[in-house]
Each structure stands twice: as structure tokens, then as C-alpha cells.
Amino acid sequence: MPRPPLTQTDRTTVRYHQRASFDRDLAYSIIDEATVAHVGLIDRERPVVIPMLHARLGDRLYLHGSPATRLMRATKPAADICVTITVIDGLVLARSAFHHSANYRSVVMFGVTEPVSSVVERRKILEAYVDKIVPERRPHLRAMSDKEVRGTAVISIPIDEASVKTRVGGPVDEEEDYDLPIWAGVLPARTGYATPIPDPRNHPSLEVPAHVLGMTR
Predict the structure, then answer these.
(1) d(Cα 121, Cα 178) in Å, to the nearest integer?
(2) Per-residue pLDDT, 57
(3) What string of DSSP letters covers 6-65?
(4) How far apart are CA 104 and CA 89, in angstroms?
(5) For 144-200, what is the HEC assignment?
């Protein structure tokens, strides 16, 4: 059964409507693929945007950090925030500087934060963070202590008042420019990880585990 679409409001209306989507599954795929979310809020009557790791469980986006951080202080007990998540797929090189662009997929969402007070639920969410960033790593780790879980603040917002914006394809130049002897096209973007650098205090018998090496392929 298809999921209901994202809720369109005046805050989520996209000017270039041909690039807009309110498809929930598309939004979730972008959120899950991206590593960094930019969180915008008002703190002491001033705007601030904070880059953060994020995780999604179901229909909610989760953010975490020390209770002493700006975000956790500013959202206690609740705050209206904006979160932007972007994946860059390539640079679009046109025949004029004006028509250069980028291919991308992005989600912009708005919502009121809610704290996660349950230690059991907080542990589940923090484990989801590890699973998202480095799949298959968590079984190799020491389990988080209750003290560590209690010392980490977690907040969430519903993924509902949101929109997706994407660009695909090549450059769109002025018609008279297509005859110019200027190369144009798309430079695809790739993100990845290089050769792992071991901690010098690793046990001497340890080799780089398969789940870490797999991240570099």
C-alpha cells in the first residue's frame, strides 16, 4: 500500500514546481542515503544552522548530541526547526557561466521537536545511528552503557511538512549557444571512503575488519 504524500504548505512550496515532489518514499530514500543534515533554528533571537548526522526510524527524523549543545538547549522543551538534507549527483557544465548548475536531490522539512525521554527508546535510536553510518559495525562493538545513553540527548521531528526538490539531466543553454565550440556536459559526483587509518593504540593482532573495508569499495 503506497504511503500518503508529504504535506504541502506555504513553507514547502517549491518555486520551480517541475522539480518538486511530495513523494514520501523518494524523501525517505534521500534522507537515508545522505550523511549530513543542516538544522536551522532560532537561538536567542538569532538564526543559526548546524550540520549534524541524522537517522530516520519510520516517519520521524532523529538528531542527537550532548545536552549542553546549542541545539539541545535551544529545543528544550520544544522548538520549530527546519532541516535540509542534500545529495549532490553531479556538476552541470554549460556553455555560459549563467547556465551552470548541479544535479541534486534534496529534502526540506519543518517540524516541532520532541525530546526522547525513554532510555530504552533512546538506545534503539542511537543504535540506528551506528547502523546507518557504518552498516554491520554494531555487533563488533562494546554495548553502550546506560550512563552513556542517559548522557546523550535525542530529539525528533515528524517527516510530514516537507518537500523534495531534484534536478537531473544535462545543461540547458540558450539556443544560439549550441553552435559555439565550447564543451558542455555533466561531471558526475562520487562520494566514498579511502584507505582506513588504524588507531595506533589498536591491539597489534587486529586487522581492518571486513565491514570497514567494505565501506571503501
Answers:
(1) 57
(2) 96
(3) PBP-TTT--SSGGGEE--HHHHHHHHHH-SEEEEEEEETTEEEEEEEE-EEETTEEEEEE
(4) 5
(5) CCHHHHHCCEEEEEECCEEEEEEECCCCCCCHHHCCCCCCCEEEECCCCCCCCCCCC
Domain extents in the chain:
17-191
- Per DSSP, the three-state class of 203 is coil
What is the reported pLDDT for 43?
94
Quote the CA–CA distance of 107 and 69 in Å, as a whole number.
24
| Residue whose C-alpha cell is 533512546 | 122
Cβ burial of 163 (10 Å; 0-12, 13-18, 19+) is buried
Low-confidence ranges of the chain (pLDDT < 70): 1
For residue 128 the three cell numbers come to 540506528
Q: Which three cell numbers stand for residue 67?
A: 545536552
In this structure, what C-alpha cell is assigned to residue 6? 508529504
Cell of 32: 537515508
Tell whether domain 17-191 is in CATH 2.30.110.10: yes
| CA 83 to each of CA 55, 106, 109, 114: distance values in angstroms, whole numbers, following the listed order | 12, 10, 5, 14
For residues 97, 99, 103, 105, the Cα torsion angle rounded to the nearest 10 degrees is 110
